[in-house]
Fold this protein.
Amino acid sequence: MESKQVEIGGEKRPFRMGIRASHMICQKYEIDLSEFDQFMNEVQSKSKIDAIVYLIYAGLYAGYKKDKRELDFDEEDVWVWVEDLLGEKDGLAEIFGEGNENAPKEVAE
C-alpha cells in the first residue's frame, strides 16, 4: 500500500493511517488497540482538536517513515498547518478523504 499524498504545510506530503500511526495514537492516548475505533468515534463526535492534530501528525510521520523520507516537521508545525486548513473549504477533507467514517466533520475553534 502506497502512502497517500496530501497537501499540507505548503507541499504534498506522504500520509499513511496504518498500523504505525494507530500504534502511535494508542501510546499517546493510553488506549488498547481494541479501543481504537471507539476512540476515533469520540474524536469525531466531540471534535477533539488536540487528537485531530495528533492523528494528522501520526499519519504524516508514518507516511514519511514508509517512504524513507527525513522528517522536516514536528507536532507544533502540524498545529499551525491544521489552523491554516481550518480556514479553507474542505481543508481537512483532503487528509481524511471523503467517505472516511473516522474523518472529523467539523472542528470547534
About this structure: The helical segments are 19-28, 36-46, 49-66, 75-86, 93-96. The chain has one domain: 4-96. Strands lie at 4-8, 11-15. The first helix runs from residue 19 to 28.
